[in-house]
Amino acid sequence: MTRSPLILAALAITLVLSGCGSRSFGNKIDDQFIPSNVEQKIKQASPDLANGSHIVVTSYNGIVLLAGQTPRADLKAAAEQAARSVQGVRKVYNELQVIAPSSALARSNDALLTTKIKTEMLADSSVSSSNIKVITENGIVYMLGVVSRQQAQLASNLVQGVSGVQKIVKLFEYVD
Questions:
Q1: Domain range for 43
Q2: In terms of Cα–Cα distance, which of 61, 67, 72 is closest to 24?
Q3: Where in the numbering of this chain does the BON domain appear (predicted)?
């Protein structure tokens, strides 16, 4: 029974934080489960996808981003079809590249780049970082979120100034 206070505390913090931002509590919960459900569907769709590809799945407000690499175009299409079949998915952006999977070094550089970007966003009070999700894959920075057009532009300008960014892909939902 010692878990009950911890569970209640976690729930309380989640409820308080859900008041911040423009997504509902339900959307935030859905976004926690959608990526693993998509990954499971992708594995079921094709063993080649699970073994010969590097696929990053993320979700924000029911919008799914598929990023990474897969060696064949048919596998890219199969991953998208699998993602679309998951309950709660409103839209799929299939940004998979049809190339060999990236190296561990490239993935490490991507993680470092994402950290740099998030740090810059947190330090800049003009950017609403709590409404923007940043994913970097093979030097390409993807931004998802529910923001105003001005916020999207501010975030994009900030990301452009970070060394190592090869390309920026904005996948925002606009509130204005």
A1: 21-98
A2: 61
A3: 30-100, 109-176
Type of residue at 55: I
Cα-Cα-Cα-Cα dihedral sign, residues 99, 87, 45, 33: positive
pLDDT in tens, 4-22: 554 444 444 444 444 445 5
Q: How is residue 69 written in tokens?
A: 């690499």
- The pTM score is 0.82
Q: Are 170 and 156 in contact (CB under 8 A)?
A: yes
Sheet holding 140-147, edge to edge: 132-137, 140-147, 167-174
Identify the burial level of 59 via C-beta atoms within 10 angstroms of its C-beta, where 0-12 means exposed, 13-18 middle and 19 or more buried.
buried
In this structure, are residues 135 and 147 in contact, taking their beta carbons and an 8 Å threshold?
no
Q: Is residue 138 part of a domain?
A: yes
- Are 166 and 13 spatial neighbours (Cβ–Cβ below 8 Å)? no
Q: What amino acid is encoded at 115 in this protein?
A: T
Which three-class secondary structure string do you get for 23-90? CCHHHHHHHHHHHHHHHHHHHHHCHHHHHHCEEEEEEECCEEEEEEEECCHHHHHHHHHHHHCCCCCC
**Residue 108: which CATH number?**
3.30.1340.30
